[in-house]
Specification:
Rossmann fold; five-stranded parallel sheet; about 15% strand; 7 helices; alpha/beta
Length: about 180
């Protein structure tokens, strides 16, 4: 006998294999099927951003937005010492990006101005000793100053601290610099 709130569905004591099959079919039916033209446009957009398609598709699915801003840490750009410049392959890679804001987040004592161009802008990164609210506010202010929504920006970094920036700033996500720059190599 069914009680209040029971949907009169199948008993959960049925064989596990059947339940697994039924749930898999139901989940499959819920997933959208994109027209091939939409997939082609998204593959092209991923290429414009220099992102692997799977990463781009995952970000689109999670946020429902296109990526319109990329924040690069100085670690991801492999600029680690004062006076060091961006390698030519990374400079070319940044110059090839289409329809996206390119902002650098530079660890001190490096000079942010040294990375503009090819970046559109560069700012000082949060300090290692900054508490979470200060880190959050600095990243959020960087994104706001560029006039971008946070969930349409992706952070390209190298360290777990930089991964925390993406979370603190409520950004679309984090991708390692090694993976990002290896995508089109």
């Amino acid at each position: 006998m069914s009680g209040i709130g029971h949907n009169r569905g199948p008993e959960l004591d049925a064989p596990v294999a059947w339940r697994r099959f039924a749930w898999a079919r139901a989940r499959e039916a819920l997933l959208p099927v994109l027209p091939i033209e939409v997939v082609r446009l998204r593959v092209k957009r991923a290429q414009e951003l220099g992102l692997p398609y799977r990463s781009y598709a995952g970000i689109r699915a999670a946020t429902g937005r296109d990526v319109i801003g990329l924040l690069f840490s100085s670690n991801a750009l492999a600029v680690l010492r004062a006076g060091q410049t961006l390698s030519q392959d990374r400079r070319d890679r940044l110059a090839a990006l289409i329809r996206v804001d390119r902002t650098g987040v530079v660890h001190l004592p490096l000079d942010p101005a040294a990375l503009v161009p090819p970046l559109d802008a560069a700012v000082a990164a949060p300090r290692f000793s900054d508490p979470w609210p200060a880190m959050r506010d600095r990243i959020a202010a960087t994104i706001r100053a560029r006039g971008l929504p946070a969930d349409a920006c992706l952070l390209i970094g190298e360290t777990s601290l930089e991964r925390d920036w993406a979370e603190a700033g409520r950004m679309a996500g984090f991708l390692s610099g090694a993976r990002y720059f290896a995508a089109s190599a």
